Amino acid sequence: DGGITQSPKYLFRKEGQNVTLSCEQNLNHDAMYWYRQDPGQGLRLIYYSQIVNDFQKGDIAEGYSVSREKKESFPLTVTSAQKNPTAFYLCATRGGTYGYTFGSGTRLTVV
Amino acid sequence: GQNIDQPTEMTATEGAIVQINCTYQTSGFNGLFWYQQHAGEAPTFLSYNVLDGLEEKGRFSSFLSRSKGYSYLLLKELQMKDSASYLCALYNYGQNFVFGPGTRLSVLP
pLDDT value at position B60? Predict the structure, then answer.
């Protein structure tokens, strides 16, 4: 079955560390997105990519970086410059009937 | 811009009907989506409106009025498993979705 795989499900980061969240899709969708969700809040767009080797900043890109070397993969790195990274991170693709298809999410916690 | 408003929280009783509103201020859009999100999980697609009127899908229906600038999601015969957040989102061709803040629904026995 086609879908989006996010890993890991839970991630712990020490102060000053960079961590990378994985997002892989086999839906053959061109557009991929990263959203951040804080408790009780809506979705905020971090970065998005419409095609391979191209990506754009979203509303809250500071402290994050991405790459899009393959159509299937859109990893997100949370850098040490992101001062409050504890949140639920969702990767999504756009295409087909349902608009957005979301991965199962990664919960990142700073320890 | 596209400002979207939703009530923050709602409570309803099992077996009842609940209406979750979504109001927006925008110059135009192609469609409006509704997603359901259980705590700690990914949002999943519920419904999509392009034209004004009601779209019915089992216990869930969504309504759109472009002239009045609002949509609502209607949930009938509420079940405990319907306790979740409900997100509305506006869509324009070639542009990113704009999500509302979400409404957290609690269904009580």
Answer: 96
* Beta-strand runs (E) in B17-94: 18-25, 31-37, 44-49, 53-57, 60-65, 70-75, 84-91
Report the run of H or E that residue B29 belongs to, with start and end. none
**How does pLDDT run across A3-51, given as a tens digit for each residue?**
999 999 999 988 889 999 999 999 999 999 999 999 878 899 999 999 9
**Record: contact A107-B48, CB cut-off 8 A:** no
Of A43, A99, A105, the CB nearest to B41: A105
Nearest to B96 among A45, A98, A103 (CB): A45
Across the interface, whether the CB atoms of B40 and A105 are under 8 A apart is answered yes
A33 interfaces chain B, CB cutoff of 8 Å: yes
Q: What whole-number distance in Å separates Cα of residue A97 and Cα of residue B46?
A: 11
- Please give the Cα distance from B5 to A109 (Å, whole number): 29
What is the per-residue pLDDT across A41-68, written as a single tens digit (0 to 9) for each?
889 999 999 999 999 999 999 999 999 9
The pLDDT of residue B81 is above 90: yes
